[in-house]
Amino acid sequence: MARTIQSLERAAAMLRLLAGGERRLGLSDISSSLGLAKGTAHGILRTLQQEGFVEQDPASGRYQLGAELLRLGNSYLDVHELRARALVWTDDLARSSGESVYLGVLHQQGVLIVHHVFRPDDSRQVLEVGAMQPLHSTALGKVLSAYDPVAHSEAVEAEREAFTPRTLTAAADFEAVLDLTRARGWAADVEETWEGVASVAAPIHDRRRMPVGAVGVTGAVERVCREGELRPEIVAAVRDCARAVSRDLGAGRF
Amino acid sequence: MSDTPSTSSHGHGPFIAAIDQGTTSSRCIVFDRDGRIVAVDQKEHEQIFPKPGWVEHDAAEIWTNVQQVVEGALEKAAQSNPGLTSADVKAIGITNQRETTLLWDRNTGEPVHNAIVWQDTRTDALCRELGRNVGQDRFRRETGLPLASYFAGPKIRWLLDNVEGLRERAERGEILFGTMDSWVIWNLTGGVNGGRHVTDVTNASRTMLMNLHTLQWDEKILASMDIPAAVLPEIRSSAEVYGTTAAGVLEGVPVASALGDQQAALFGQTCFDQGEAKSTYGTGTFMLMNTGHQPVNSYNGLLTTVGYRIGDERPVYALEGSIAVTGSLVQWMRDQMGLINSAAEIETLASTVDDNGGAYFVPAFSGLFAPYWRSDARGVIAGLTRYVTKAHIARAVLEATAWQTREITDAMTKDSGVDLAALKVDGGMTSNNLLMQTISDFLDAPVVRPMVAETTCLGAAYAAGLAVGFWSSTDELRANWRRAAEWTPRMDAATRDREYKNWLKAVERTMGWLDDES
């Protein structure tokens, strides 16, 4: 049998002890029932407390199970919650960029559009909520593949279709783009999915720094790029929006 | 805040500030020329419940909060605009919780009692008494309103009757009445040192004391309610300079608009043409339709109210219908039923099924409001079978809001003779995509969400900006309006008609639940 880590075993025992009824236990109860020195028990409890798995009642000093444990089993962020939190910021992104805004999450082997803000020019547009986009060629998909390991394996295992001559289909090229995405914090798609269309996207994180979605703008390549380069003010606006939504979800400043 | 100079003028002066003195909080938002938000500050105030059914606010606390949020918003605006001064703010607009009633001493500036909030029902019995042999509609022809406890007139009467010595002081001219717009404007423009005692036509139209046709206080109603004219503010238009700010960070800035919150949203949604309507989906829902320059009498349970008046232009009237329980039904599903963890999850749950499974939910928690007005009704979930799951109920919850919207638009069409071309929506529930699609399906009309969600503050800012020439015309404001999303009907007529029939059957089942109406 492989070697086990004693302090993890002890931490697990503590959690079981605290879970054994609706009770709070003091340090001496915990240390004596597990046969540990008080100092050892205290060190483990403090670590668990820091991770949110245990909470200490400020009045009595007794310990109980922490809220983080409950969240572990229920960690999925509702996409409609994500849309509600993103509403104000995505409106603002559409106005400042002059382009349409999409919010996407990983769904099966692609990007599910969960929110769409029209380009602010009063032209006829159709709401694309519920549509699917490919993971490997769109800016939203690249961001998800770069930050979410599940998305990454979906994108790597799937056949990467060449939608245009500019679509990256080779595994090494795709991985290099994901490295670049992680390094600079955003991804682009310049005519890799649709001819004449360019997009820029950045990741949204929740309070545990988990990647929960991507937000980006999409528009005519002539407007999104200037002299063959993506316009830096659009990149900045997309990243600001992603940060603002992340902050609303409780992610720290980064 | 992002600073992207080459994509827009966002974040650069000059600006308009809007104060929204709301039911739960006071806010200040600074807008730029494109109608975009530059900075926001907000502070909640205490809800005081002295007895069941009574709701009060401390007006002194509210005035302190208003000053703080104005300072806070200016400070935040200065972070993205270094060197910003009061000279960069061209005007201040006011929007407010409607009907909430305050009396204060003109010499000390002290309120004589807490403000009585619109939801407060202490004037129920008084309203019945005021109806005499005529009933609820005794003053409807003049004011457009039924005798109900919301409106300010009876609340003034209650204060005069119940605060010792107040009537004598009021008759001596020592006491001023105002809704929250008047209180904020009076204080902003100097308070005891020459503060302007004014209100605007939209707020005055919610007192039950103003004649809708003359836009003046109605002497007969004042006599019937026994309210001395000396306490009343001067009725002004919604967009004109009432005075300038006397002190604080915005000293010297013109105070240039006042609009009740729902009317401000109508203005912010740029519903400037007859037949244009907006619906604000929050805890409850308020829908207003522009009916042009004539007040339209309602025979279908709606209110007739002033929409807005710009300077000395002709007034614009509106029909108003409200739904008592919309967002609060979703909260009930979360808090009382525990079927969802957050309000947004209602859409997730509802989306797991394709239809309501035959279930209909009529949330007549405290009776049926417009267009039925049946206080003997109580909530019903109808059409239950073994097949129905919690997801079907979630769907029925969303459909309830959509059907009630349909009932109000039908009433508006009947009263005004104008068909609804499209519905402009705002408020928290507009983030619910399924709900917006369902409303479009049930109305058989497009539902449109604008890009700025804060239409209430925006409306006040627009009116103030028009008054000082910051914006030239309502056409320019219309050009600022941006569509963020649009839902178009996808339901076939046969399905819609069949479902509507079922809904109406369910509504029928709610009526007469309470035996004796006491």
Number of helical stretches of at least 4 residues of chain B: 16
User: How is the biggest beta sheet of chain A arranged?
Assistant: 6 strands, antiparallel
% residues in beta strands of chain A: 15-25%
Q: Find the count of extended strands of chain B (DSSP E, 2+ residues).
A: 23
C-alpha termini separation of chain A: 42 Å
Oligomer: heterodimer
Task: Provide the low-confidence segments of chain A as ranges.
Answer: none
Secondary-structure element string of chain A:
HHHEEHHEEEHHHEEEHEEH
| Broad structural category of chain A | alpha+beta
Low-confidence stretches of chain B: 1-10
Q: How helical, in percent, are the residues of chain A?
A: 40-55%
Number of helices of chain A: 10
**Structural class designation of chain B:** alpha+beta
- Main sheet overview of chain B: 7 strands, mixed
Q: Compute the gyration radius of chain B: what is it?
A: 23 Å
Structure description:
The complex is a heterodimer of chains A (254) and B (518). The two termini of chain A are 42 Å apart. A six-stranded antiparallel β-sheet of chain A has the order 5-4-3-8-7-6. Chain A has a two-stranded antiparallel sheet with strand order 1-2. Chain A has a two-stranded antiparallel sheet with strand order 9-10. Chain A is of the alpha+beta class and 254 residues long. In chain A, helix 2 (27-34) packs across helix 3, helix 6 crosses helix 7 and helix 6 (139-147) crosses helix 8. In chain A, 45% of the residues lie in helices and 20% in strands. Chain B is α+β, with helices and mostly antiparallel strands. Helices cover 33% and strands 21% of the residues of chain B. Chain B is built from 16 helices and 23 strands. Chain B has helices at residues 59-80, 124-130, 140-143, 152-162, 166-171, 180-188, 201-204, 219-225, 261-268, 327-335, 345-350, 390-416, 433-443, 455-467, 474-480, 493-510; strands at 15-21, 25-31, 37-44, 56-57, 89-96, 102-105, 115-116, 175-178, 198-200, 210-211, 216-217, 234-236, 239-244, 254-260, 277-281, 285-292, 303-308, 316-323, 360-362, 380-382, 423-426, 447-450, 483-487. The relative contact order of chain B is 0.12. The chains are: A alpha+beta (254), B alpha+beta (518). At the A-B interface, helix 5, strand 4 and helix 10 of A face helix 11 and strand 23 of B.
